[in-house]
Write a structure and sequence with these properties.
binds zinc ion, three-stranded antiparallel beta sheet, two-stranded antiparallel ribbon, 5 strands, elongated, alpha+beta
């Protein structure tokens, strides 16, 4: 099984953030992000669902952000306490 297939397996069962996946596979976050971008198209007609990142301090939701990368700072309160977006299939 390739790594991408394995990611699809994992995300079919539970939600994961890109960072969690990177930790799991012991690879760079940027590699996981590439994988996710690829998976998004390869799993059609299934969908890669993404829950938006959220500021834990003020509750700001990073809605407009469609990239898989985690935002680093809240634009509203400048907090860096951000819940990353999670993915599932
Ligand atoms: Zn905030």
């Amino acid at each position: 099984m390739t790594r991408r297939e394995e990611i699809i397996e994992i995300l079919s069962k539970e939600e994961k953030s890109a960072q969690e996946l990177a930790n799991y596979f012991q690879i760079e976050l940027s590699e996981i992000i590439q994988d996710l971008e690829h998976i998004k198209y390869s799993i059609k007609p299934r969908k890669l669902a993404m829950k938006h990142a959220l500021c834990k301090k003020c509750g700001f939701v990073f809605k407009e952000r469609s990239k898989v990368k985690k935002p680093s700072k809240c634009p509203r309160c400048k907090s860096e306490w951000i819940t990353p977006q999670v993915f599932s299939i």
